[in-house]
Write a structure and sequence with these properties.
Blueprint: E1 19-23, E2 26-32, H1 34-37, E3 42-49, E4 56-59, E5 63-70, E6 72-77, E7 80-85, E8 89-92, E9 98-102, E10 106-114, H2 119-125, E11 127-128, H3 144-151, E12 156-160
Antiparallel strand pairs: 1-2, 1-11, 2-3, 3-10, 4-12, 5-8, 5-10, 6-7, 6-9
């Protein structure tokens, strides 16, 4: 697969993103997409309250890495639990079942997908912060079937429910 280098340097000021969406009980700020990186990677900042968790899932198209900026979370990779805190990093290879669970009051992490593409799920399926400046009052978690249908076009397979505290 031939990747194209970006044509120009790219930067954002603190607190800004290409897209800013409410996602689950938290917020996703898209920092870069495949458009800025020639498709080589994308990066999001995920800001989640305690108890936020992803369903057990895997990515068919990309690796996913996590750099914890604030807080603590458990990353479940297959049958292994990896506890991460501020400054810790983890990489999940494609086709590897995984989920995370926020253990602290809040967690903030930089998540990278390589190659780019999966960031579009958050942009397409999230609720734009500009349209709803306050977080949704009630977090509605779709059924496993609905989630599977929504994520399938992005090469993401939902395997099971999210972990709990």
């Amino acid at each position: 697969m031939a990747l194209v280098s970006p044509a120009a340097p790219y930067s954002l000021r603190s607190g800004n993103g290409i897209s800013d969406t409410w996602w689950k009980a938290g917020r996703i700020v898209t920092k870069t997409t495949g458009e800025q990186t020639g498709g080589s990677f994308s990066q999001i900042e995920s800001i989640d309250p305690q108890g936020t968790a992803t369903p057990m899932h895997l990515h068919r198209n990309e690796e996913e890495s996590f750099l914890v900026l604030e807080g603590e979370l458990s990353l479940i990779v297959g049958e292994e639990q990896i506890d991460l805190s501020e400054g810790d990093f983890a990489l999940v290879p494609r086709d590897t079942p995984h989920a995370y669970l926020v253990r602290s009051d809040r967690a903030r992490m930089l998540v990278t997908f390589s190659p780019a593409g999966f960031e579009n799920a958050f942009i397409d399926l999230g609720v734009a912060v500009a349209e709803s400046p306050e977080p949704p009052v009630e977090t509605v978690i779709p059924s496993a079937e609905e989630m599977s249908r929504a994520f399938a076009p992005y090469g993401c397979e939902i395997l099971g429910p999210p972990p709990t505290l």
